[in-house]
Amino acid sequence: MTIRPFPVALATVVVGFIAVIIVSKITAPPEPPRPGIEQADHGREHVSSKEYGGGQPPTSGSHANPVAWGV
Questions:
Q1: For residues 66 and 71, what is the distance between their CA atoms, to the nearest angstrom?
Q2: For the chain, does the N or the C end have fewer beta carbons within 10 angstroms?
Q3: Who has greater pLDDT, 44 or 59?
Q4: Is the pTM of this model over 0.90?
Q5: Residue 56 or residue 22, greater confidence
Q6: Calpha distance 50→68 (Å, rounded)
Q7: What pLDDT does 54 receive?
Q8: What are phi and psi of 34, to 5 degrees?
Q9: Which of 35, 27, 67, 43 lies closest to 58 in space, CA to CA?
Q10: Which long-range CB contacts under 8 A does 25-31 form with residues at least 24 apart?
Q11: pLDDT > 70: what percent of the chain?
């Protein structure tokens, strides 16, 4: 049984190409933020208070009193 050179060469090229892509992704410097994309707003209110105008009433536990929240 002989090893055919073309499939071995093709496999070597494919593996080498994938290795170059992986190494270039790992060693590439991070991209700066683009000016048109909004950055995450981490230090502010929770999303529910932005969308619904305030905190949401609790749904379980002894503090979940629908009368107190006006539900």
A1: 5
A2: N
A3: 59
A4: no
A5: 22
A6: 22
A7: 58
A8: -80, 145
A9: 67
A10: none
A11: 48
